[in-house]
Amino acid sequence: MGQPLILHRYINRQVFLTTVMVTFILVMVLVSGRFIKYLAEAAAGEIAADALFLVMAFRMPEFLADDRSPESLYRPVAGAWAHAHG
């Protein structure tokens, strides 16, 4: 009876940690790309340079709600499953 509980805790922990890490990496890649775009706009004078980080902060929910969420959940589930059964 104790064995499935240990396996479920292991899989849940692995899925959670890997999901957080993959999501963090994907968000950083997306944010850095957007930051470069906004930096180019600030250099061209289209937006104020002092408002650059404010624009990034207000656009952060858009970065998090992007279509990357299913990918950041699929990879840890597949990895934990393969590690537990391989």
Give a written overview of the molecule.
By secondary structure, the chain is mainly alpha-helical. Helix content is 85%, strand content 0%. The chain has helices at residues 2-44, 52-64, 69-85. The mean pLDDT is 78.
What keywords describe this structure?
single chain, 86 residues, mainly alpha, 3 helices, 0% strand, rod-shaped
How do the SSEs run, as a string of H and E? HHH
What is the 3D form?
A: rod-shaped
Q: What does the largest sheet look like?
A: none
- Let me know the average pLDDT: 78
Strand content: under 5%
Distance between the termini: 22 Å
Which residue ranges are poorly predicted, with pLDDT under 50 across at least 5 consecutive positions? none
- The Rg value, from CA coordinates, equals 19 Å
Report the total helices: 3
Structural class: mainly alpha
Give a nutshell description of this structure.
This protein has helices spanning 2-44, 52-64, 69-85. The chain has 86 residues and is mostly helical.
Q: Which helices and strands appear, and what pairs or packs with what?
A:
Blueprint (H helix, E strand, L loop, with lengths): L1 H43 L7 H13 L4 H17 L1
Helix pairs in contact: 1-2, 1-3
